[in-house]
Design goal:
With about 400 residues, the chain is an alpha+beta fold. It is about 25% helix and about 35% strand. The chain contains twelve helices and 21 strands. It has helices at about 15-25, 35-40, 90-105, 160-175, 185-195, 200, 245-255, 275, 300, 355-360, 365-370, 380-390, and strands at about 5, 45-50, 55-65, 70-85, 110-115, 130, 135-140, 155-160, 210, 215-220, 225, 230, 230-240, 260-265, 285-290, 290-295, 310-320, 325-335, 335-345, 350, 375.
Length: about 400
């Protein structure tokens, strides 16, 4: 029987959840349906059917992402992508990706899409480029700060979830416009990110919430009681502060929690703790991919952010999956603002849309991609100028998996 694709309705959520969970080899839990429902936009979810059987799909959350220099802009946050075991290698994912990206273009939707990839080899073939990384951070308890670090006099307090959440939301919203890669969060997104059922804990404790007048930290504990005493692990979920002093104070608090052997932080990409420490080697870091970015429309996307230097180059962009982008584009930046026009001129730089997506948030150098044979310079000096213009003032970072 031929495969068919359609958008979903609210009634499709239970079956869609079961299929996505099965694709990730997870049990389906009915009591999580309401949490999913708060994030579920059925008209932005596509599913493929084999007859009446839902065998795969994927969705989009309507979010904002902070871009270099311009703050929050709409992003198609791609999520819940999966194919049912037994139905893979049938083109299901390709159909879903095409429906998403071609739909965004045809309807004038978001100019960029972004996602976290379960496997890094999946999404480059659909034009996604690796735009941000995160660090798995491990620091021993009691690690000393260098001389001169100020943590101020304000006390950090442990509070209940009900007291913490309004403060956390306020701090996050204050910070988000200036943090490249951060996403907007609805109340449903907050509930999802800080879900605290036994299943969510993965063998750790419930969340602890620590508040500073200018920031917050949320963490769990993994118990480890040894013969010489407790060596518990403190797992940071999120830490954010309006001031550098408050950030240092929150870190100092977490590093001094009694009965802990080590602090671990899963999404610590833009974290300055290594520069706070007296001995930077105490902070072990392992880096991996986080945000993958897909340029939906080259001309619309490149004009949404600002740039660090003036440049005037012609880009020859390859894009097999979204052929409307495959063209030569004159990319001109003056005083931080860009204009983009389709032209027939000879190119200065040749690249594919995946490379352009990787550099879009300002954290990946096109010069590095050129060394990996992903970008080719035609006009001498054009690549360095373009790479410099695209760099942001900070490393992009997304503190949540969505």
């Amino acid at each position: 029987m031929a495969l068919t694709l359609r958008t979903l309705t609210a009634d499709d959520l239970p079956e869609f959840q079961r299929v996505v969970n099965s694709s990730f080899l997870m049990d389906s839990v009915e009591d999580q349906l309401e949490r999913w429902r708060g994030l579920f936009e059925p008209e932005r979810h596509h599913a493929v059917f084999d007859g009446d059987e839902l065998i795969g799909g994927g969705g989009i959350q309507s979010r904002e992402i902070t871009l270099p220099g311009t703050g929050p802009r709409p992003v198609a946050a791609v999520t819940s992508v999966g194919v049912k075991p037994g139905h893979r290698r049938r083109g299901v994912l390709t159909r879903v990706m095409r429906a998403q990206l071609h739909g965004l273009h045809d309807e004038g939707g978001e100019a960029i899409a972004a996602l976290w990839a379960s496997e890094a080899a999946i999404y480059p073939r659909f034009g996604y480029g690796l735009a941000a990384e995160f660090a798995r951070l491990e620091v021993p308890r009691g690690a000393k700060f260098r001389s001169g670090v100020s943590i101020g006099d304000d006390r950090v307090r442990e509070v209940s979830r009900d007291e913490a959440m309004p403060v956390m939301k306020a701090v996050y919203e204050d910070l988000r416009p200036g943090r490249t890669g951060w996403l907007s969060r609805t109340d449903a997104a907050w509930e999802h990110q800080f879900a605290d059922t036994e299943r969510d804990r993965g063998g750790l404790t419930a969340y602890h919430y620590a508040l500073h007048p200018q920031g917050y930290a949320a963490y769990r504990i993994k118990h480890d009681w040894q013969d010489r005493g407790p060596r518990n692990e403190l797992h940071v979920r999120e830490i954010a502060a309006r001031t550098d002093e408050a950030y240092a104070a929150l870190y100092r608090y977490l590093l001094d929690v009694d009965m802990v052997g080590e602090l671990k932080f899963f999404t610590a990409s833009d974290d300055p703790v290594t520069h706070l420490l007296d001995d930077a080697r105490l902070a072990l870091r392992g880096r991996s991919d986080s945000l993958w970015v897909r340029i939906v429309d080259v001309d619309r996307a490149l004009t949404q952010r600002r740039y660090g230097s003036d440049v005037d180059v012609v880009l020859d962009v390859a894009d097999e999956f979204c052929p409307w982008n495959a063209a030569r584009w004159r990319f001109t930046v003056k005083d931080g603002a860009a204009t983009v026009q389709r032209v027939d001129d000879d190119p200065d730089v040749v690249l594919d849309v995946q490379a352009l997506g990787a550099a879009y948030l300002g954290g990946t150098r096109l010069t590095s991609l050129a060394r990996a044979q992903r970008v080719r310079e035609v006009t001498a000096g054009a690549l360095n100028a373009l790479s410099h213009a695209l760099l942001g003032d900070q490393d992009p970072h997304c503190p949540e998996v969505f």
